Amino acid sequence: MSVCALRVFLQRAAVMRKAAHQTFSQARAFPQCVTGSYTHSRGINTLTNSLRAEEKVTVHFLNRDGKRISVKALTGESLLDVVVNHDLDIDGFGACEGTLACSTCHLIFEEAVYKKLGPISDEEMDMLDLAYGLTDTSRLGCQQCSFTTTRTHNHDKHPQYKDATISMSKSKERKRETEKRIH
Amino acid sequence: MKMMRMINLVRGSVMKIHGLSRASRCLAAEGGVRGLSSSSGPRVCIVGGGPAGFYTAQQLLKARQDAAVDVYERLPVPFGLVRFGVAPDHPEVKNVINTFTQTAQHERCSFHGNVNVGKDVTIDELRQAYHAVVLSYGAEGNRSMGISGEDLPGVFSAKDFVGWYNGLPSNKELRPDLSCETAVILGQGNVALDVARILLAPVEMLKETDITQNALEALAGSKVRRVLIVGRRGPLQIACTIKELREMVNLPNTRADMLPADFEGIAEALKDLPRPRKRLTELMMKAAKEGGDDKAEKCWGFRFFRSPVEVIAGADGKRATGIRLALNKLEGSGESARAEVTGQLEDVDCGLIISSIGYKSIPIDPAVPFDPRRAIVPNEMGRVQDTAGLYCSGWVKRGPTGVIATTMNDSFDTARVLIQDMEAGKLDLSVNKPGAQAITALLQTRGVRTVLFSQWEKITAEEEKRGKSLGKPREKPLDVDEMLKIA
Predict the structure, then answer these.
(1) φ/ψ of residue B207, rounded to 5
(2) CA nearest neighbour of B239 among B335, B328, B353, B341
(3) To probe the interface with B, which of A96, A100, A176, A180 has the most B CB atoms within 10 Å?
(4) Is A95–B404 a contact, with Cβ atoms under 8 angstroms apart?
(5) Is the pLDDT of residue B39 over 90?
(6) In 10 A of CB A16, how many CB atoms?
(7) Which are the contacts of B463, defined by CB distance < 8 A and separation ≥ 6?
(8) Which residue in A176, A175, A173, A169 sits closest to A63, CA to CA?
(9) DSSP symbol at B451
(10) Which residues does UniProt assign to the signal peptide (chain A) (predicted)?
């Protein structure tokens, strides 16, 4: 059976973690999004000065073969949306179209990014449990939104946007053929 | 509408090639003849229009821009178990139909329903007309318990029961008697839990799903109040997954009723379990301990370490009134633990017995190798043994387990292997193959009426229309003749 997990790493090669249990991330407030009904409610990101819905963040998807797909996503866009809206060539991603009925949008995040993700619901964890190649920093892409984190330098008045890099250990990619949009 | 779109495109200043080819495909599809696609590319035939068939087709079409793929399906309607297996209260799982629809509408893909491969057309005839044939026909049979009384009224396979509430034509006459208080389900996989849930779910909830009207009416009059889900081994070997278990726990007006003895030693084993198994076991233990509202009218429970040995018939010998179970003990632990007989027996009174111990593939054609022990087509990575140009994907290749995503990955694998063989010259693509044109002509001479995808679209529109008047997403026609009439 071929793997179907996408691995995240933050601009460097990821290391698969082997810890025994799931770590929950802190419920930091940052843009919430709800897949399906598509309501964007604005939270306050403690790390950014200001957030506008049009702000973009670069998301990198890294395939297990090493191939990298980079896109600019809108903050608040779910990672499933990012794949669909940009028509990314990722095989079989999001089969249930973001309804928590499959695990094909499984993503593995780098620990630092993973810790910033919102709390995981029982329903998400139930489906995540079925994902191939489950790790301690795995989540389902349809439930995660793109967000920005900033790092301000002393000399620099402008916030630096840190890119999130998500790697995929899926070995195949496919052009998403569906034109159906989640929102 | 399609003609108008084409005219507008011609009038417009920019002609999208995509639009043009879609229009030509529409015209071609209407005519039932492969239109403008190249006749020199590889032609692949897929037997079976369920998830395996469509996912395999999808990959093939993507990987080779010159490939034409034809999907043959026995029923007039596509999608296999997504339509007839997935529970009516799991509509999100059926979203994959959207991606299959896109594949079927692809200009290089054509769907041919109401074609019984093995009877209307042989595998050899398909192999002559195509460069490659992929068997994706799944598992239409079921494993039998092999116990006496199995054929008595009141005993059903889960496959048939599920087919009944999902509108599978061959199960429309099932008429299960739901006048008993207790139902016993043998097997503890997700199908068993689906059956239990449908038996106990409130009718108010079911009536908004695409469950068939006759099943809904039968369930509305059901007297079943207690469902036992029986497995040979222990809680740590249970085959269901947590989502389905959580749905049982959350069923309104029901309580869980389990035996504490079945859970001895389980708490100690928890810490060493991988997370998915650990969470599942914890939820089960919680349900067993807390039970639920005592005033609840209905109850369900797992019974572990029990194997069916005989169906007990009533005094007149005419129907099932109970089941005799043998008590087991476990040898070994974890996934590979084995159930061993102890010699003890237990009788359970019940009027409905559903055996949910697995689907089973059957041989389709004497020309195709078949492994009767494993009930699959013997293959190496999807290449059928000793038969060049013949492949398989899905349950007929690996056995009848796994969710749609499992089948998806498996189908992608078979497609990749097929493409590799094309590129390595293992399939002779220099020979021109007639494909659907030859097969359609052959079927016509045999009086077989094929159903095209555009005709399925008429059927689904009619289903949705009928459903609307009943407050449901769709109402499925129950027999093939009716489907053909609408098409």
Answers:
(1) -70, -5
(2) B335
(3) A96
(4) yes
(5) no
(6) 12
(7) B474, B475, B476, B477
(8) A169
(9) B
(10) none
DSSP-derived letter for residue B342 is: E
How many Å is the Cα radius of gyration of chain A?
15
pLDDT confidence tier of residue B342, bands split at 50, 70 and 90 = very high
Cα separation of B23 and B476, whole Å?
Answer: 30
B166: tokens are 């999902």
Structure tokens at B188: 């503890």
CB atoms within 10 A of CB B434: 16
Contact A125 B416 (CB under 8 A): no
Residue B412 in contact with residue B62, Cβ under 8 Å? no
Whether B282 has its CB under 8 Å from any CB of chain A: the answer is: no
CA distance A25 to chain B (A): 17
Q: Provide the 3-class DSSP secondary structure of residue B376.
A: strand
Under 8 Å CB-to-CB from B317, ≥6 apart: which residues?
none
Q: What is the pLDDT of residues A136-162, one digit of tens each?
A: 999 999 999 877 554 333 333 333 334
B62 vs A contacts (CB less than 8 Å): 174-175, 177
3-state secondary structure of B135: strand
| Cβ-defined contact of B96 to A175 (cutoff 8 Å) | no
Which tokens go with B479?
């027999």
Q: Token match 């074609």: residue?
A: B115
Could you tell me the end-to-end alpha-carbon distance of chain B, in angstroms, rounded to an integer? 19
Distance CA A151, CA B254 (A): 53
Picking from B55, B90, B406, the nearest residue to A1 by CB comes out as: B406
B448 φ, ψ (degrees, to nearest 5): -95, 130
Backbone CA torsion sign across B306, B308, B309, B315: positive
A 10 A CB-CB count for A67 gives 12
B95–A177: do the CB atoms touch at under 8 Å? no
* H/E segment holding residue B133: strand B132-135
Q: Tokens representing B309?
A: 């040995």
Residues of chain A contacting residue B405, judged by C-beta atoms under 8 Å apart: 4, 92, 95, 102-104, 130
- pLDDT tens digits for range A80-116: 999 999 999 888 899 999 999 999 999 999 999 999 9
How far is the C-alpha of A15 from the C-alpha of A11, rounded, in Å? 12
Counting beta carbons within 10 angstroms of the beta carbon of residue A159, is it exposed (0 to 12), middle (13 to 18) or buried (19 or more)? middle
User: B151 vs A140, B98, B108, B155, B311, CA distance in Å?
Assistant: 45, 39, 46, 7, 9
Output the DSSP codes for A124-172. HHHHHTTSTT--TTEEEGGG-B----EE--SS--SPEEPPEEEE---S-
